[in-house]
Write a structure and sequence with these properties.
One of its GO terms (biological process) is peptide transport. The chain has a domain of about 160 residues: P-loop containing nucleotide triphosphate hydrolases (Rossmann fold). About 25% of the residues lie in helices and about 25% in strands. It has nine helices and twelve strands. The strands form two sheets. Strands 6-7-8-3-9-10-12-11 form an eight-stranded mixed β-sheet, with helices on both faces. It has a four-stranded antiparallel β-sheet with strand order 2-1-4-5, with helices on one face. Helix 4 packs across helix 5 and helix 5 packs parallel to helix 6. Bound molecules: adenosine-5'-triphosphate. Adenosine-5'-triphosphate binds next to strand 1, strand 2 and helix 1.
Amino acid sequence: MVFLDINGLSVKYSSSSGPVYAVDDVDIHLEDGESLGIAGESACGKSTLGLSIIRMLSGGSAQGKILFEGDSLLDLSESDFNTKYRWKKISMIFQGAMNALDPVFTIKEQFLEILNQHDFDGNFNRLILDAMNSVSLDENVLKKYPHELSGGMKQRVVIAMALLLKPKFVIADEPTTALDVLIQAQIINLLKTLKKGGMSFLLITHDLAVLSEIADKIGIMYGGQIVEFGSSEEIYKNPKHPYTKGLLESIPRLHGTNPKYIKGTPPSLLDAPTQCRFIERCPLAIEKCKELPPKLKTKTGYVRCWLYEEE
Ligand SMILES: Nc1ncnc2c1ncn2[C@@H]1O[C@H](COP(=O)(O)OP(=O)(O)OP(=O)(O)O)[C@@H](O)[C@H]1O
C-alpha cells in the first residue's frame, strides 16, 4: 500500500535578496514499511524537504501534494495536523538537536515538557520509559542534565524524544553528523532496529555511505531538485545522473581508486530553475541541458537528465 506520495512539491522562502527556490517540483513515492534516504550537498534543500512534510517551515511556503496514508497533509488545518499528525504519526529529529537540549532542566523534565505541549494525559512514566528503552538508555539518565551525558547519549535522548508519541514515520535530519565513527555506527544500528520494529524513516544526510544501511529508496538532491530517485539497489548499482555518479565516486574507500571530487559549486537557489541545475559542473553536458530536464522514468523511479531521453 502507498504510504507517502509526494507530487510536485515546491518550497519557496522569501529573503532580503529575493525568493529562495529551496525545493523544486519534487516527487517521492514510498510503500508501507519503506524508508527513504535523501542525500546531497549542503544547502540543496534537504532539511526544507523534511520540514515541509512535518509542516514546520519557518518563513517558507509549500505548494504541491503530500499524501500520507491517503490524507493530503498540506490541505489540513493547522489544528487538525497538530492533533492527528505532528509527533503522533510523523516526528522529526532536528539537525543539531542534541546541542539544543536545555542545560538547566533534567532529561525527564524535558520529556515532560514535550508531553505537556501535546496535552498528553495518559501514563507519562510508561511512555517515557518505553522511549528510553527503545534507544537502549538506562532509566538513570532521566535524572541527569545534558552536560552530564556523552554526545552519543544526548543523540539517543533526542531520538527518544522524537519517538515519545510512537510515530510511524520519523524524519531524521543528519542524525549522525558531528558524532565519532563508533557512535555513528551505534546510532545507525539503533535506527535499523527501530526500522525492523515497523518504523519508517526519512533519513537526511550528505553522506551516501550512511544511507546504504537504512534506505529502501533514495533521492539524490541537487539545487533544490531530486535529480534522481529510485530503489537503493538501483541508485548504488546503476546510478544514472552524472551528479549521483559524482557523489558515489567521492566516497572514500579503503582499497582501489582514490575518491574523486565534483569540481565547481552548486547553483544559487535565488534563481528559479530554467535549465539543468547541474549544467555548470556536468562533464557530459549537451546543448539540450539549457532546457529544464523533465522527470524521465527509470526502472524504479526517475532521473532529471536529458541523457536518458528516449528517442
Ligand atoms: N527560513 C529560511 N529563510 C530563507 N532561506 C532559507 C531558510 N531556510 C533555509 N533557507 C535556504 O534554503 C536553501 C536550502 O536550505 P536547507 O537547509 O534546506 O538545505 P540543506 O540541504 O538541508 O543544507 P545542509 O546540508 O547544510 O543542512 C538554502 O539556500 C538556505 O539558505
